[in-house]
Amino acid sequence: xxxxxxxxxxxxxxxxxxxxxxxxxxxxxxxxxxxxxxxxxxxxxxxxxxxxxxxxxxxxxxxxxxxxxxxxxxxxxxxxxxxxxxxxxxxxxxxxxxxxxxxxxxxxxxxxxxxxxxxxxxxxxxxxxxxxxxxxxxxxxxxxxxx
Length: 147
Prior knowledge:
By secondary structure, the protein is mainly α. It has one domain (2-144). It is 50% helix and 0% strand. The protein has helices spanning 2-14, 34-38, 62-65, 75-94, 102-111, 120-127, 131-144. α1 runs parallel beside α4 and α4 crosses α6 (120-127). The N and C termini lie far apart (38 Å). Residues 1-19 have low confidence and may be disordered.
């Protein structure tokens, strides 16, 4: 298990976009980066044929990575989905006029939600059904943006 975790960490770091740097997945007193956070959980360790060739999650390939069954989410898959969710939050934050707060971002998420598979906000909400992804995204969101 430890060996698989270390492989996942090294594989995840190679694909990390620079956008993850300002996110804190711990507490203000004990900050954690995404790799440290994911290290606290168990992940699927089997063959991931469906991830072959995927370096980053986007609206086009979201459901190839984040299927109906969350039991097959590996370290790498969760990492990519979390990064995609954070990109969606950043996209919403960029639309905020004035000071960016949690409520303003939530309002944008609500106003742009359409229950369609290719809608990034629909995908964001779908991803939050996984407890690990939800905890990571919501913790980072609360740590980054004021109430």
